[in-house]
């Protein structure tokens, strides 16, 4: 599993790897290697990339945890069920 989701964020923002490389002052190859998981960026570069892409730094990463299975809780009121929250299954 790739941890860094740079490729997806670039697509969402409508930016090319070349444009990002110019804005953060690295080579296009550096961005390409990061996008394909061949190399991992330095922390300071990640901060720059997040700023340029106008995203929270955590948005550059895929989750490493499995999503919890949640069950929706309902109450019955006035003839219909109304969701009131979620609990772990």
From TrEMBL:
InterPro entries: Cro/C1-type_HTH, Lambda_DNA-bd_dom_sf
A Gene Ontology molecular function term of the record: DNA binding
Positions of the HTH cro/C1-type domain: 6-60
TM region positions: none
Gene3D superfamilies: lambda repressor-like DNA-binding domains
Pfam families given in the database record: HTH_3
Keyword list, A-Z: DNA-binding
Record's protein name: DNA-binding transcriptional regulator, XRE-family HTH domain
Organism: Chishuiella changwenlii
């Amino acid at each position: 599993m790739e941890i860094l989701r740079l490729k997806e964020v670039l697509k969402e923002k409508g930016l090319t790897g070349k444009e990002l490389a110019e804005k953060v002052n690295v080579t296009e190859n550096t961005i390409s290697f990061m996008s394909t998981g061949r190399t991992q960026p330095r922390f300071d570069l990640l901060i720059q990339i997040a700023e340029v892409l106008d995203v929270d730094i955590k948005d550059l990463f895929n989750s490493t945890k499995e999503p919890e299975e949640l069950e929706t809780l309902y109450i019955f009121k006035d003839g219909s069920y109304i969701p009131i929250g979620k609990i772990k299954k």
